[in-house]
Every structure is written in structure tokens, then in C-alpha cells.
Amino acid sequence: MNGVGGVNGHDGDDKPEANTQILQALEIIHNPRSPNEIRHSASRYLEEIRSDGEAPYHGFGLASAKEHPAIVRHYGLSLLEYAVRHKWSDYTSEQSRALRDWVVTLALNISSEDPPYITNKVTEIWVEIAKRCWGLEWMDMDELLVRLWDGPSAQRLLVLTILETLSEDIFGTDDSTAALRGNDLNRACVDIFTPADVLTDFFPSREITINTRYGSEGWLARMATLLEWCISDEKVSQDQQVSAVKALATFKSVITWVIPRALVTTHAVNRICACLAVSNMSIQLAAVDSLYALYNRSRFSEDDFKDLAGPMLKTDTINLLKQLCQWLIVDPSDIDEAKYLLLKKFSEMIFNIGRLLEARPSFAPEDSNLGAFFNLLMDIMKNPSLHVSIPALHLWVKLLNSNKIGDSPAVMDLASDLLETCSQRLIRFEALPEDSKNPSIMFLNEDVDTMPEKHAFLGNYARFCNQVVEAVVQKQPIDALYHILSQADQVLDHVYDGEPAFQASTYAKTSVPLLRIDAQFSVIEAALKGCLTWLTTAQKNNSTGHEHDVMFSNLRAWCDRLLGLTFEDPSIKQRVIQLAVGFAVGPLKREPRFALKMFDYILGTRCPEHPGCVAYTDAVRELQAFSLHQLQRLAMRFPNDFVIIFDEVQQKIELVSRTVALDEQTRARYSSILLIIMHRATSVDAQIRGARVEQFLQPLIDQWQNPALGHSLSSFQSFTNLLGLDGLQQYLSARAVQKIPDWSSHPLDDEGKDLQVRMEIALDALPIRATKTIMSVILERLEETSQPFEMACRIWRKKIPLILPNLLQFISQSQAFHNPSNWSGLPPEMQDIVSRILTDRFWQVGISHGTRDEFYAKVGETRTTLEGFASSVRAAVRAIRETGYRLLYYMSLLGEPFYSFPELPGPLSRALFADALSLSPHQMTILVDMMRPVIDNCPVQSRSHFLPSILTTLFEQVDRKASFEWERIEAKSRTATEDDDLTNEMKDESILRQLTMAAVNVVVGLLEPSKSSPPAAPEVPNDNVSSDTAGLITDTHRYFVLQTPEILKPVILFCTHALRMRDTRACSYIARVLRSIVPDFAGDSPVEADVREFISTEVLKACITSLHDPYFVELQKDFAMLIASIVISYTPYTQTPKQILLSLPGMPTEKVDRAIRHLFRAQSNSKQQRAIVLDLLEGFRGVAIHEQGKLPRPDRKKVRSEMQKQYMTADMQADVKKEQSPDLTGIAGMFG
């Protein structure tokens, strides 16, 4: 680069044609009439000119010539920017000085006539230079900024933008360039913003070796003075508005890290608060943003709290805030977007003020008006917009749980208001129609774009409402419960007001009466939690007495009244049972007579049959299943009370079972209630109980030992006969079902209906589902040290060998059903229908069309069609497969009695994984999820025997399946067009993410350093373990896996492939886990060397490849940290990481060597390590889609705050616009 003597040192006469060619190329590109071939040639020329040594000079010439069009000047600035970003390290000090002087000159010439993108580009270049040399060779930057500040308003705005961007890059973001000089830039920023006297007070022993500041005032004071001028006039001018908004934006950036005392001495917060009173919404919004950032700081000293947060709690300020809040009322039918955005930000700001108060209530000044502040908070909470309301609601949860604030009179005065509002807001808003005129729904439609967001948000809102009710009842149990139960009586007495009487033909799960009762019962359930907490606390403090008696009497009387009411709606009956059982096992748990009454009530609950009403009939079935579960729940809680009248209970159970149980599975669930009572009734002699339990189990065990069952499970054909499907393949072939496009519209003939009935009867006769019911009630919710658990272990130790061989065959054959090669009765052209028949239909939030209820209604309508027949087949196979998985889980709860069988691992691996690749991704996800507890529950002494075969096969199969499915989706993505309906692809991708995440969760469970080992059975201490600490380390799954090469190989291979799977959440976890194990292989053993070479080669390559992929742009920091860990840990042992980096095209040796040296110096600073790697691989990093110009940046008004994101946590990946994968063919050749 010439012109090193300064800006004017280059006369530009040596290449006068260059500027002309650039101008011509730009003209060609922007001329719509230019032929494509010539336009592409001009684009290539402009790309190539950036690397030319004279490019910065040409760029300055183009940018500084005001006579050129703005687009030409912008291109000139882009040449300067490229030189700074990509070639700065190649320049001499004279060249970099010349480049810096050019940028300063451009800044000094900025005027109000320049378009914003010119000013912004000058700002970017200035900041990029500052990050590289400010405080080193550039010492007068602050003086230059002050000089610009004293110039025209356009230059003052430029200064503010520079200061804001500097602050963001140095403190607010993980900017890799700034991180390389982190401490120096941090210190320089603090210097120039803080008044000199505050610096002296705050750092009395500070040595000033390098002076980067100009003047004693500091930028905080200058900005505060500017802000005061901006709002000094009654009517704010355009210039004042723009300056104020920009100053407030800069305050927002610096206010998060600046010394709090500096904000006090410069009166900055007072100036910002004054902006709230200005009748200018842009200024008010910017002020609220700044105050939000200030009060979002985590810690203040007492003095800083009083000076910065204290004023917000004074009467005058609260009155101002209340006036602003009232002015911001928005009409839901005609939403003013600007006003609504300000209202939501205002609510979040108030939350932060309240959060600080809750954390340090003693810091509040004496003249604080907390009552007025809480009233303001109450007003915000009552706002019809749930998004405005939720920060205040969340804050109430915090305040009520605060020891010092929660019991204060100012809070307790609002208790009834809090209960009233929460009761109204606990209605299931998601069940209301989207076109509802309910204001909350209208606002919700504006704020939420997808169903996952809506469900997550409403779930959080309801949780906070419940917590508020719980806290209020805990503090005022008698009064609060009286208020809530009285409210419930009103609802129960008028539940059908304004609504038609119940009719089975018009039954709906979203009927208004049901929603009313559900909301009120939700309030009562939250109140019961608060009641139980109060009772526990009162008992600990020995303050039992009259209040307890009053409460028990009131609750019992109300429950008796509730059980005396009659409802025809099966869903309301279900809700009544749910609430009443909650009373029985909660505050009335010491009243066994009520539990017995509930038991009889549930047994006597019936609904009339209406076979023609499908939705009603389904609800009745759901009520029956739910009632059974509640009966089991009561039996588990009160076994010693029920066993006293066991014969009477048995007679009732058997009578009801004969009356309503239409299948063996339901009869088994009724019988399980008797088993629960006998098994858990510790008041009965253990031997007697054990004998009775054995008696219950024997008929089931006899079924498992039937030789006919073993024969039926010995082959695939006999297994299909066992399920009643021996004629299935012939039936499908005879009807050529592969030629029928829409099975749901094709009626099922009589032979198909006969097959359905035979299948249901055959499935009902199998012992597998009844065994699941029995094992669940025997093992669930038991302490491992309890007598019933010890009894279960003794009994099942003898029973498992009798069940396990046939159970493994059930699992194996049910998975073999998914392998088309086993369907030998179908001709080749019909093989594809196997997956069509066995692929599950299910509703996916945010992807499936319609609601969940609409989906199930549609499924119900297809029962008598060919699709309904296929659904019956898949349901039968799924029931066998997933029940088998569940039985394995229950057996794993027994510990050694299950894991110690010597021949178990091999047959179990074959049963689970021989045909696993034939399963769909959704079905394999269920398998992988089942394996997690089976792996976690393995006792330490059984790991070497059980885990190697299981884990090796698991990761080999899941790696093959996930890799194949991701490649398939990528291939589809590459051929997709804009006109394609991508709903199915989105479903497939969402399901595949679930599989990937399930496998990743297994990896995390095995290798996460913080993952604690599950409790193990006692064993003899190992003499080789010298300390307790060593024993804890060697007992972990992590230690076992890392010390077992047989397992480690497929695990690390899967992790390597997972780094390229397009699921950012899974990749992030894998990068973190790999980073944690990298140091474990920095040793001299052969195993360590082999693993180290694999990680140094394959894992490092995968990291660099993903780093290059724009899809993973948000994970570049994670990949960079993993790369840094590999280089730091392994470079002392091998040159492989260095060689891989050097194999990248155009990567100079000296650059790699310099990066490695810097990495070793920054071993204790992870942020700098990340920055060094990202700087080294700058030319190989992917660029975000919006930065490529493929998608526009999101609208600022639609960008959610961090708080809003917190309240709407959801996986948004499935909702992103489908993008084609980038062409990575060049990456394949990156590694030499």
C-alpha cells in the first residue's frame, strides 16, 4: 500500500485507470439492462480488487469523493473495511497509520447529507481499527472523538455510534478481535467514559502508564449534558429526538458495565428518568431500554442502590410511572404497535426494579413508598395482555417468597386482588378459539407466532399464577382458603349459566362449563400446596391448634359438598375425582375415612353409554382409565387402612371389574389395586403378605411358562399367528393396497374388520401388558430401603428368569415386524407399504395442521377405513414393543437381581438392536430413551459385565441410523424448490432432532463431568483405591467408559458425526462433552495415543467443517473452544493438530505457530482462547444467512427481549424457513 507518508502522500497518478474500471464495474452491476455474463464478470473484478495492494487507496479515493453516488462511496468504504479486517496484520506501522488517518478524515467529513449506511460503515471501520491498535500506537483517539463531538450534529451522532459499538464489541458480545486485547480495551473504555475524580476515588493506587483519555469530564458526563439539552424544550425538535435516542442507546450499552458511582456523579440516571416524561414515544422507549439495562445489573452496593434504584421507589417517580402506564393502555382490536412495544418494555423495566428490591429489601431508602410501587405492580399484572402481565406476575412470585417483603402489610393488603386475578388467569387460554373476542387472546395472537411458543408461554404463565396462589395461602391459610372455596362454590352453582345443558352428542373438551371448572379447580389445587406447606411449617414450630381444626373442618365439609354434586360431562367427573383425590392424599391424608369414601365414590362413578357419540365415548374411556389410576394412587397412600377391610374392598373391586372391564388389560389393572394393598400394607406380617403376592403373580407366571407361548415366539411367522395376523399379508396383497392413494377414504370390508377383532382378542390374551401393570404397581414410588421394595426384589429375583427369555423374544419379533425382508408374503412391488403401515401417526406441536383434539378426532373418524386397519396393526405391534421396553425398565429398578444374570447382555443386545435400523426415527427415539435408565441403573459391580455389549451396539446402531437419516434429509433439501410443501420434511426433521437429542442425552449422561453416579449396592472395598475421592471418581460412568476402549470407540465416533448433524442444540452439547474429555487423553498410554490421534484428526476436521457451515454460525464459539482444547492439550504430544490446521488452503505456518503460542499463554482465559481460534480461522468461518443477503434481518419490533425469550422457551428450529444446504464441496479438499 502506497501513501505511507499520510493521506496526501499518494498522488494517485500511477494507476488512474483503476478508479475508472471500478466505477464502470459498479455501473454495470447496478444497471438492470446489463447482460448477466458481463454483470458476473464485473462482480468478479470487484471481488478481486479487494485483495489488490492499492485497494485501500482506491477505497479512500472513492469514499471521500462527495460527487460520487452514495453506492460508489459505500463500495469504497468496503475496500477499506476489507483491508482492516483481513490484512491489518500484514501492514507496517506506517501503512496502518495511513489507513487510520484516511478513516479519521472520512469521519471529519461526515455531514447530515450523508445517508445512514455511509455513516454506519465509517463507524464500523473506525471501531475495527480501534480494536486493533487503540491504546497501542493509536493514543489520540479520545481527543479525535472530542473534536468530532464539538462539530456538527451529524458528527456528534457518529461519535455516539462509535462509542456504542465499541462498548458492545468489548463488553457486550464475544467479538473475537476485541477479545484478543480484552484487558487493554476494557481499561481504555473505563478510562474514557468515567469522570477523572471517580476514577481516582475508585482506583486510588491506579498507575497511569498509558493515557488514553482526553480531558477530565468523561463521556458519561458529556452524554448526560447532551441528554439534558435534548429534552430542555417543551416541544422536542427532530434533531433533539435523534440525538436523544442515540445518546440513550449508548447509555444502554455502557450502563451495564460502567462504575455505578460515575452514573451518580454525572446525574445520568436522573437525565434518563426525565426522558420518561417527554411526550415523544421514541425517546421514552429508548429511556426505558436504558433503565432496563441499568436495573438488570446483578449487584449494587447499598449506597449505589439508594442513589440509583432508590429514586424509582419514591412517590413522585412512582406517580410518573403510573401516569405513563395509564397512558400506554392499548386497544386489543386496534393495536398501536409502538405504544404496545413500549408498554411491554416498561413492564420488564419494573420487573428489574422489583427484582433488585426483593434481593436487597434492607437497601430501600426510608422515604420509599413501597405500597404505591406494589399497587403499580398490581396494575401491570392486571393488564389484559399476558405478555405485559407476566413480568409483574413473575415478580409477585419472588416478592411473596421473600422473607422480609412477603409478610409486609403493603403486600398482604393486596392478597385478595392477587387471588382474584390469578383465578381469572388460570383458564386454559389455549383452549379458547383464536377468533375469540377475549382481549387476552387478541393480544396473544399478536405476540405469539407458533403453537410451541403459545404452549410454553401459557404454561409459564399458569405456573406463576399457581405459585402466587400457593404463596398467599401459605401466608393467610384460613382467610385465603375461605375466599377461594367461596369463589369455587359460586362457579359450581352457576357453571352452566349462559350455556346449553349437557348433551353427549355435542360433547367437547373445550366446553365453557368445563373450562370454568378447570380454572377454579386449578386455583384450589395450588391452594392445597400452600396449605400443606403451612401445615408442615406449623408442625415444625409446634403451632398446631384451633386453626388446624378449623381448616380440616372446612376442607372436609367442602369436599363432601363437592362429592354430592352431579355432573353428566365425563371430563368434569374426571376433574372432580382428580381434585378430591388431591384433598385425600394432601391436607386430609390423616383422615383415612375420607380416602375410603373417595375409593367408593370412584368405584361408583358411571357414565351412560352413547355408542354413536364418538367424542363422548372416548371421554368415558379416558375417565375409566383415569379412575383406575386414582384408585391405585389411593391404595398406594393408604394400604394399611384398606387392608383392614380387605375382603370388602376385594368384593367391590371384583364386582366392578366384572361389570365394566371389557378386556384383560383393564381387569389386570383392577386386580393390581388389591396387589398394591397387600404388598404395601406393612401392618400385616411380611410372610403372609409375600405369600399373597406370590399367589397374585402365579397365574401370570404360568402364562409366561406356557410352552405354546415359547413356540409362538420362536419365528416371525408364528409370531404373526400369535397376534392374529396370519392372514395379513395375503389380505393386503389381494386388495392391492399399494395402489390406493388415500387409505383414510377407503372403507374397510368385512374380512378386514374380522382381522381387526381377531387381533384385539389375541393381543388381550397375551401376558405382557398385564405383567407391565403388575410390575409398575409393585415397584413404582418405593424407597429402595423400604420393606415392600425388599420384598419385590426377593420375589422378582425368582420370577425374572421365568419371564426374560420370552420377553426378549417379544421385543425381538416386534422389531422384526418393521423389517420388510420378513414380509415374504408380499410381492416386491408392495414392500414399501410395510413402513406405511407401521409408521406412527402423531400430532406435533407447531408442525401438524390443526389442534391436538382435531387430530385425534380425525384419527377416530378413520377407524372403519383401511387407514384405521393399518392403525390397528401398528398399535398392536407398538404395544408389544413398548411394553417390552417398559418391562426392562422395571426390571432395571431391581438392581442386581436383574443385572447379575450371566447370559443377559448378549441376548438383550440382539433383541434390542438386531432390527433397530428398520425402526422409524420416532420409534428408535423411544428405544434410546428407554436405554438411558437401564444404563443409569446398572450397579457399579455389574458394569464390566453388562454395559460393554449394550453400549457398543447401541451407539453403532444409533450412529448408523442418525447419519443415514440426516443424509437423506440433506439430499431432499438440496433438491427442494420454493414451491414444495415442506410440511412433511419439517416433521421428519423435527423427529430426527428428537432421535439425535435422545442419543446425545445418553452421551451426556455417560460423560458429563458433573453427572453423579447412581447409587450402587454395597460391595467390598477395593484395596487398590487409596482414598474416598479416588473411589468416587472411579465409580462414575464417565471413568468406566473412558477406561473401556470397546465402548469408547463407538461413542466418540458418534460424537464426531454428531458435530455435523444439523441440530444446533445437540451439537452444542456434544462439543461441550468432547471438550471435557480431551484432556483425559493427554498421556503416554497406547489407548490415550490412539484416541488422541483420532480426536486430533477426525474430530478437529469435523469442527473446522462445521465452523465453515453457515448453518452452525451460532455455534462457532463452541467449536472454537473445542479446537482450542485440542490444540492446547495435544500439541505437546503430537503435531497432528498443527498439521491439520496447516492443511487448510492458504494457511501460513507462521500464523498457525503464532496462534498456538498465544493459546498456551491464554490457557486460563477461555474467552481469549476462543478469540484466537476464530481469528486464526477467520477466512474459513461461515457467514450468517442474513449477512449473505439471502434473508433480511428481523424487524426490530419483532425481536424479542431476553425476558420474553425466557417466558417462551421452545425449539424454534422446525419453524425456520427451509434453506438449502450450502455447497461444501470445497471443504472436502481443505484437508491436504
TrEMBL record:
Domain of life: Eukaryota
Matches recorded under InterPro entries: ARM-like, ARM-type_fold, Exportin-5_C, XPO1/5
SUPFAM superfamilies reported for this sequence: ARM repeat
Domain Exportin-5 C-terminal: 337-1186
Pfam families (UniProt xref): Exportin-5
Gene3D superfamilies membership: Leucine-rich Repeat Variant
Protein name according to UniProt: Exportin-5 C-terminal domain-containing protein
